[in-house]
Design a protein that fits this description.
Number of strands: 34
Helix content: under 10%
Oligomer: single chain
Strand order of the largest sheet: 4-34-33-32
Length: 438
């Protein structure tokens, strides 16, 4: 039987003895919003109002008119968007740890962490993050300051899959690396008020997933039990950010004590915060996915992919699970899909036999794939090239690709977010376009 077909599931990768070795890359959105200076207010927990100064006006966030050929059907939105790649505990594409996220709790809702653009020469100046929110798939936006958040160059946003007004902003320059620890802020009223998250007295909290008000987070604290002072923990959130319900969920992951193994990525079932999946690399090649339905008390092996080196792992509604080989050996399948919580898997061949295709997923599991058809060479070291990109929808139940179109975009990594709703929408870079009905 081939890897990934009708076998039991497996989990994400952390260096076994120290849960800081995630090798997959996390895309973080830096939104450079140019424009005049305006004053913006947000309510405080005590009922008062504090005025914050921002370097953009709300109308600058709204979508522009339809673009002419060759980008027919696209609109420009969030102009000035740039992306940065940094190490993270969860992968890119389907994992959702970006500066922009589609809500699974309210169709058409999109949230983001915007950083007003301020530069000193060729380098961006750290600025305070701004929470932005759209309820019409990106056509219009509101903005709220993240009370208490310091200046940063990077931030990510996580949306609760069941509670539409609950979000977490992770503020950090380099998550889990160096001397700049991540700091997380929670809102349970769509950005009106914020609380800073703490694990005991430690603020070194990086939230990965959020369901029913329960956060799964990476914690670096000497108070954590286990083989090292860092790991995964869950807690029920409160509006103030303080919680006494934290509990570790990683100590019994199979193979964690083996120094040749490492943690790759982690995902949470959108309907149950106790149902987690992790992908663990085992040696130079091979990844195993494990699952727990009791918040880490016990784990079961669900899937073994012997040709994988690095993987991305994400979940969608109705117990869907996806595993993409981000880097691996030449193999028949690079994407694995389960419609029943990992009980059985379909192997899907993508365009790149060693992995690494850009696949973006909506909260319901609608997939869009983007591949490069051709790329132009920049004319100078400071210039950017252009890539001709193929856009497809991908049906995971059949493995069939359907061409959406071929469009030119700037070379390099682009943000991709797929939004469910009456008008399904694809964000790609700083542009949006509607998708055909599912």
């Amino acid at each position: 039987m081939k890897d990934g077909l009708n076998v039991q599931s497996a989990l994400p990768k952390i260096p076994a003895s120290y849960l800081t070795g995630a090798r997959t890359l996390c895309l973080l959105l830096l939104i450079a919003l140019l424009g005049g200076c305006t004053l913006w207010s947000n309510n405080q927990p005590n009922g008062g109002t504090t005025t914050h100064q921002m370097s953009f006006t709300p109308h600058q966030l709204n979508a522009g008119p339809l673009l002419p050929a060759p980008l027919t059907g696209w609109r420009s939105v969030l102009s000035g968007v740039s992306l940065t790649i940094e190490p993270g505990i969860s992968g890119a594409s389907g994992s959702g740890l970006l500066g922009l996220v589609a809500s699974g709790a309210r169709a058409g809702r999109v949230a983001g962490c915007a950083l007003p653009a301020v530069s000193a020469g060729a380098f961006p100046v750290p600025t305070a993050p701004v929470f932005i929110l759209s309820d019409d798939a990106g056509l219009t936006w509101s903005a709220h300051a993240v009370t208490g958040a310091g200046r940063t160059n990077n931030c990510t946003v996580v949306a609760d899959t069941q509670q539409p007004d609950t979000f977490v902003i992770n503020v950090t320059n380099q998550p889990r690396i160096g001397n700049v620890p991540p700091v997380a802020y929670v809102t349970m009223n769509a950005g009106q008020t914020w609380g800073q998250l703490f694990y005991g007295n430690s603020s070194d909290v990086y939230v990965i997933a959020l369901t029913k008000g329960v956060a799964l987070a990476y914690i670096s604290s000497s108070a954590l039990p286990g083989v090292a002072p860092s790991g995964l923990a869950e807690a029920a959130l409160t509006p103030t950010g303080r919680s006494d319900t934290w509990h570790a969920v990683y100590q019994t992951i199979p193979g964690l004590q083996n120094p040749t193994n490492s943690f790759e990525t982690v995902a949470m079932d959108p309907s149950d915060p106790s149902h987690l999946y992790v992908a663990m690399s085992t040696g130079a090649f091979g990844v195993t996915v494990y699952a727990t339905t009791d918040a880490g008390v016990t784990w079961q092996s669900m899937l073994r992919v012997s040709t994988a080196i690095n993987v991305l792992l994400w979940t969608a509604t109705n117990h869907k699970v996806f595993l993409e080989v981000y880097r691996g050996q030449d193999a028949p399948y690079q994407l694995y899909y389960s419609a029943n919580s990992g009980g059985a898997w379909n192997g899907i061949a993508t365009h790149y036999r060693d992995g690494g295709e850009s696949i973006y997923s909506s909260p319901s599991g609608r997939l869009v794939s983007v591949t490069v058809q051709s790329a132009s060479v920049p004319q100078s070291p400071t210039a950017s090239g252009t890539s001709l990109e193929n856009f497809f929808t991908l049906d995971p139940t059949t493995g069939v690709y359907s061409l959406l179109g071929i469009y030119p975009f700037g070379s390099g990594v682009q943000l991709g977010v797929v939004v469910d709703g009456p008008t399904p929408t694809l964000f790609f870079g700083d542009n949006i376009r509607t998708l055909p009905p599912a």
